[in-house]
Amino acid sequence: MNSALLVPTVLGGSILLTVAAGWAVDLLLRRAEARHPETALWKLLRRCRRALQIVLLAALLRGAYRQTEWPPLEEHEAAVGRILSLALIGAGAWLVVTVASAVVESGYARYATGTRDPARVRRVRTQVTLIMRVVTVVVTLVAVAAMLLNFPSFRALGTSMLASAGIIGIVAGVAAQSTLGNVFAGFQIAFGDMVRIGDTVVVAGEWGVVEEVTLTFLTVRTWDERRITMPVSYFTTRPFENWSRGGIQMTGTVFLHCDHSAPVDLLRDKVQEILHNCREWDGRGWDLAVTEATPSSIVVRAIVTAKDADDLWTVRCAVREQLIGWLAEKHPDALPRILFGPAPDGVGEPMGPGR
What we know:
The chain is α+β, with helices and mostly antiparallel strands. It has 3 domains: 3-165; 180-242, SH3 type barrels (Roll), CATH 2.30.30.60; 250-334, Alpha-Beta Plaits (2-Layer Sandwich). Helices cover 58% and strands 14% of the residues. The strands form 2 sheets. It has a 5-stranded antiparallel beta sheet with strand order 4-3-2-1-5. Helix 1 (3-35) packs antiparallel against helix 3 and helix 5 runs antiparallel to helix 6 (118-148). The longest helix has 38 residues, at 77-114. The radius of gyration is 35 Å and the shape is elongated. The chain starts with a helix and ends in a 25-residue tail after the last helix.
């Protein structure tokens, strides 16, 4: 066959085989999904279709391009072969990462569906996220190394560098001590169950929710939508508050300063009424008591509960706001007052010249 006709034949045949193979794989995965709709793996594996098709196309072209006997290809045979090899390695790495992600996400979805404990779900989610990051980094490094081996100059350079690998490893370890410490801290956080994605934490005086955990840093989303990025080593070397560890239910307090004449029994009834009309109160408990008395006022403390930190904040604000409004309307004398009285005779009078 003429080489001018052989080139489009090889190219077109490779594309047709690739499209047919992708369609067949997708058809099989759709049938498997229809038979087992409870398993998310088949649906997730369908995302690998593009990577699989690129791998097949690169492999077919890599094995058949020499058969075309087309002069331009023969003149640049080494360059074309190297390009196809690089494409095959890159697509293969993409396929491996996509398949691993589908398998891991499917396992996580099955675990999350069958587990009622939110804390365990968040812990597994954090571990799955870090595992996928490690897999991605490892596969990428292997793919880059395999690509570099296709270049003779880099292959010779790698052989010469093996002789000094020990010294280079020591120097790199010392230079990257902080980074390596963060990486190991990331594993410690993920598998030591110290902090998980979705946990409510207080770090450096800031209250927020853990939004992202990586091998080197952790992102906390504060209540006002700011993002605080911190090295993961911070959480292994310094104390911090984790309000979600051991359960996300919380108890909070509301303090009011009142006059000594404040009707405490009526305040207690009012708190109960407010909580029963508050959707965020979880009904676990409440209390009100006078916790302190000064010469000018008393301190009334109300204890409330909620299912999580967000609802607790809403309950505390509602109780405080409605109590103050009720006192101002029904018992204004119960609010703190600053009294001014006349000074005793002779006190505060200016001194005259003869006195």
